[in-house]
């Protein structure tokens, strides 16, 4: 990870979780070669563990010199009646979101969350 290529490290993004792409507004430019080109996604991988949690990781690299700018992590899981999303990335920032699976408010027992 490289703090010199981003304007702000780990900016707060609220509920905007990216599972692909990059937050180019926060990209200051490559300190390795001086260019500012749309970052390349590298070594993307998706893993799913036994709890059904999905983890997506990839790297943001400079397309000209392959300098590693940031490593991106995105997780998705179902927690009770909610789908929870989380993002951590030096470039894209940190965000979390949870969306109710049910369109209406549940009438049965709700777990304390
Ligand atoms: Zn850099
Ligand atoms: Zn570069
Ligand atoms: Zn990212």
From TrEMBL:
UniProt keyword annotations, A-Z: Activator, Developmental protein, Metal-binding, Transcription, Transcription regulation, Zinc
GO molecular function: zinc ion binding
GO biological process, one term: fibroblast growth factor receptor signaling pathway
Keyword Oxidoreductase part of the UniProt annotation: no
Gene3D superfamilies assigned: Transcription activator, Churchill
The organism of origin for this protein: Pocillopora meandrina
Name of the protein in its database record: Protein Churchill
Family named by the database record: Belongs to the Churchill family.
Pfam families named in the record: Churchill (PF06573)
């Amino acid at each position: 990870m490289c703090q010199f290529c981003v304007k702000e490290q780990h900016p707060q993004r609220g509920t905007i979780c990216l599972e692909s792409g990059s937050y180019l507004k926060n990209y200051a430019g490559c300190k390795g070669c001086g260019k500012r080109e749309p970052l390349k996604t590298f070594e993307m991988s998706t893993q799913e563990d036994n709890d059904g949690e999905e983890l997506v990781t990839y790297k943001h690299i400079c397309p000209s010199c392959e300098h590693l700018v940031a490593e991106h992590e995105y997780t998705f899981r179902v927690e009770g009646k909610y789908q929870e999303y989380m993002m951590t990335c030096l470039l894209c920032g940190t965000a979390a979101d949870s969306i109710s699976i049910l369109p209406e408010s549940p009438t049965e027992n709700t777990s304390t969350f």
